[in-house]
Amino acid sequence: MKKRTIFKKVLRRLRRYAPALCIALLFAVVCAAAQLAVPYFVGEAIDCIVGPGEVDRAGVFRLFAIIGGCVGAACLTQYGMSLIYNRVVYHVLADMRNETFRKLQKLPLKYLDSHAYGEVSGTILSDAEQFSDGLLLGFTQLFSGVVTILGVLVILFVLRWEVALVVMCITPVSLFAARFIASHTYTTFRAQAEVRAEQTAFIDEAIGNLKVVKTYTHEKANAAVFDEQNERFRTCSLKAVFYSSTTNPVTRFVNSLVYAAVAVTGAFLCISTGGAFSVGNLTTSLFYCNQYTKPFNDITEVLAEFQNALACAGRIFALQEEEEQPSDEGGIDLGHAAGAVTLNDVAFSYRKETELIKNLTVSVPAGRRVAIVGPTGCGKTTVINLLMRFYDVDEGSICVDGHDVRTLTRRSLRQNYGMVLQDTWLKRATVRENLCMGWPDCTEEEMIAAARAAHAHSFIRRLPHGYDTVLGAEGSLSEGQKQLLCIARIMLCRPPMLILDEATSNIDTRTERLVQDAFAKLMEGRTCFIVAHRLSTIRNADLILVMNAGRVVEQGRHEELLQKGGFYAQLYNAQFAE
Questions:
Q1: Is the distance from CB of 529 to CB of 381 less than 8 angstroms?
Q2: Cα-flanking dihedrals φ and ψ of residue 548, to 5°?
Q3: Does residue 578 surpass a pLDDT of 50?
Q4: What is the helix (H) or strand (E) element at residue 372, kind and residue range?
Q5: Cα gap 247→308, rounded to integer Å
Q6: pLDDT value at position 90?
Q7: Torsion sign (Cα): 182, 183, 184, 185
Q8: How far from the centroid of its chain's Cα atoms is residue 516's Cα?
């Protein structure tokens, strides 16, 4: 994304805060005017001292009082200006984070599957923070600096046009230097942001899988990868810091040239004009010279930081402009489904060049239990993703109660499914909030009954605050206990269709038998899709789909498939062979 495009997008973000920014700009004008008045009155005070014993004391005290009033006005308007800038910037930051997070909810799963979670979270958190810091610095320095520069030029032309011309002739040197530095800092800061996102993703991955890392003694290898990323980050950061740091010495050099030129020019004018340009005027001009050059220092520093802010904003806008999953507005509300599911000649692949599922045709009447088995990578989980419409089919169709799922609203479709996966997920909240996630209006009795049915009630009571224990803060659970809570959550909702993906894999054998009994009651009259690796758990399924290489190679009941002596029999015998 081009820098100019990013800048336009930033300006559009600020449009809604235009009234507040106009007030801040007015404060900036008043503040600059008050600050610019001080050197003028200082010059007048110096001219009140004519010689030894010839001092207009009343005039000096009167001018000092005026100077004090100007300083007070500058302080008050500076405070008001900073307050407005901070509120605007942090409102913009909150807006961008909210929009980015809402966008994340609308992105298809293929985006998250192809991007590291740490990279995405780094964009929402770190890049947004960097952007707000640069924007705040830009506001606080840029407006005041521009107003001060214009005001000084006007006053210098009023005082003596020769001095103003000297200042204006040397100024372009500072502008050219600032432009050169800004063009290089944007490139280096953009590279720095990309490496920082990559490093954040790696850290997130390393911490999240620390047990695996330690199990395989992979610490040194991870440290080597991190060192390599850190070295690239160091290189990018040094370049960014180098170019951004050159602004101060360059502008100070130009400032010294301006100051020296004004001093020499003013001295000649004091001598040649016969008092028309007084020592007080020269002092005032030198004061204004300092006030004129200081904003250039600030603005050039702001430009360097603003390049970093634009680079980070570009990453945020890139995420916000990712293609969303197709809208289902105007789709059919499925209501409470009967549970008849049909897959008609379905074809799907995550990447076009790699074929996964092709010509998959299955008809599941309402209330049947369907087991999906097969070797790793055969497409079992992919079928679940298609049933839930996490992905849409490339060819063919999937129908529920005769409705193509692409014509249904995703919300109504997914409300009819209950999922218990091998990988458990519980949010950082109370046990009660986690259990009632799918049915917030349930009663206390219904919640406890579901927990009892999932055999979770006993260990929940032993937690520090029972059902009001905050998970992750006040109580830590084993993987098996987490899975029992997930099962209880589904038992509370009682949807017409169930998806069980190795739902009891983290539970001990004794508890598994109890939960299987509870599942048997839960599955009565419901359409169930059971993904199983342990074939002993699906003997009672009404239909077993045996998948291999993305196709259903066999289907039937357990006994029928064993009698055929085909692929299922090979899988079954491999598991139970002595």
A1: no
A2: -155, 125
A3: no
A4: strand 369-373
A5: 15
A6: 86
A7: positive
A8: 41
Query: Who's near 527: CB < 8 A, 6+ residues apart?
Result: 339, 340, 341, 364, 366, 367, 368, 369, 370, 496, 497, 498
Kindly give the residue spans of alpha helices, DSSP state H, lying in 107-127. Answer: 109-113, 117-122
Q: What is the DSSP string of 185-236?
A: HHHHHHHHHHHHHHHHHHHHHHHHTHHHHHHTT-HHHHHHHHHHHHHHHHHH
Average pLDDT of the segment spanning 222-246: 84
Amino acid 115: pLDDT: 77
The least confident of 14-28, 286-300, 306-320, 564-578 is 286-300
Amino acid at 169: C
Domain made up of 3-320: CATH architecture: Up-down Bundle (1.20)
Sheet containing 357-364, strands listed edge to edge, beginning at the edge strand earlier in sequence: 357-364, 341-348, 395-400, 403-404
Give the phi and the psi of residue 276 in degrees, each rounded to 5. -65, -35
Distance CA 181, CA 250 (A): 10
Residue 553 parent element (H or E): strand 551-556
Q: Is the pLDDT of residue 206 over 70?
A: yes
Does the domain at 341-416+495-576 match CATH 3.40.50.150? Answer given as no
Q: Which two tokens stand for residue 405?
A: 């799922």
More confident residue, 280 or 70: 70
**Domain map (residue ranges) of the chain:** 3-320, 341-416+495-576, 430-486
Question: If you count them, how many residues does the chain have?
Answer: 578
Where on the phi/psi map is residue 334: left (φ > 0), alpha (ψ -120 to 50), or beta? alpha
Tokens of 54: 């010839």
> Cα separation of 233 and 549, whole Å?
42
* Token reading at 79: 């405070």
Whether 154 contacts 167, CB under 8 Å: no
Q: Give 404's strand partners.
A: 399
**In a 10 Å sphere around its CB, with 0-12 CB exposed, 13-18 middle and 19+ buried, how is residue 263 labelled?**
middle
Q: Whole-prediction pTM value? A: 0.65
Q: Do β-strands 551-556 and 54-55 pair in parallel, antiparallel, or remain unpaired?
A: unpaired
Structure tokens at 565: 């002596």
Kindly state the DSSP code that residue 468 receives in the 8-state scheme: G
Please compute the mean of the pLDDT values over residues 150-165 and round it to a whole number: 80
Look over the chain and give the mean of its residue pLDDT values, rounded to a whole number: 81
**Cβ contact 100:320 at 8 Å:** yes
pLDDT at residue 397 in the model: 93
